[in-house]
Every structure is written in C-alpha cells, then in structure tokens.
Amino acid sequence: RPRVGVVGPAALVHDPYLNDNLVAFAAKQGFAAVLAPPEYLVDEDMSYPAALTYFQNEGIQTVLYLNSFRCLKGHIDAYGKQQQLRERFPGLRITVIDFDSESSVLNRQNRIVLTLRNHFVRK
C-alpha cells in the first residue's frame, strides 16, 4: 500500500473521533496512513519540521497536514509557510486539510481522496 504521512496537532492526528477515523478511511481507499509520532508534534513551530523530517527519512513523499479548526497560528503556519516547506523538504508533497465546523466530513474525505490519487498517479 502506498503510504501517506499525517501531521498536525497531536490530538487531531491521533484521535480517530477528531480526524474522522482517517486511518481506516485511508485503508479503505488503498493507502496506509502513517501518523507522525506524538513526540514530533509537540513543537512551537506548527509547521512540524521534526515530523516532516521523519516522513522524509521514512521515504514518505505525500503528507496530509490536518489543520485544526479555528487555530490562527496553525492556519498561518499551514498556509503561510508552504513555500518555505517546499524549499526545505524538496519532493515532499504537503496538502492541508481543514478540520473546521464549516467543512463536512464528506468534503474532507473527497479532498483526501483527490489528493492521494493525484499524488500517487503522477509518480
């Protein structure tokens, strides 16, 4: 199975209730979700460089960045630093998935499916 990294706030990444059971959903789609270890998610820099380095070292090239609802710092880091992250982690494809009250589970799942299929088909 193709592997996809999952990064973001520790609770959102590791709690199936909060992340719409992402691991099981990815498996149904034919992908293996690799959750960033919790110790790499406890960081003031919410672009999570330690977690992205971990994924890069593991050979994972596609990452879902779960953006927590209404978190301004996370929003700025997730969207504002994308160019810097692309330069720092060449070859790593990062897609931000918003987990907020205006975003339905179906919309998030559709975005995840489109992202994964697009990233893995292009290889």
Detailed description of the structure:
44% of the residues lie in helices and 19% in strands. The radius of gyration is 13 Å and the shape is globular. A 4-stranded parallel β-sheet has the order 2-1-3-4, sandwiched between helices. The model has no long low-confidence stretch (mean pLDDT 86). With 123 residues, it is of the alpha/beta class. The protein is built from 6 helices and 4 strands, in the order βααβαβααβα.
Q: Which tags fit this structure?
A:
four-stranded parallel β-sheet; 4 strands; 123 residues; single chain; alpha/beta
Rg from Cα = 13 Å
Strand order of the largest sheet: 2-1-3-4
Helical segment count: 6
Averaged pLDDT: 86
Break the fold down into its secondary structure elements and pairings.
Layout: E1 3-7, H1 10-14, H2 22-28, E2 32-35, H3 49-57, E3 62-68, H4 72-80, H5 82-88, E4 93-99, H6 105-121
Parallel strand pairs: 1-2, 1-3, 3-4
Quick overview:
The model has no long low-confidence stretch (mean pLDDT 86). This protein has helices at 10-14, 22-28, 49-57, 72-80, 82-88, 105-121; strands at 3-7, 32-35, 62-68, 93-99.
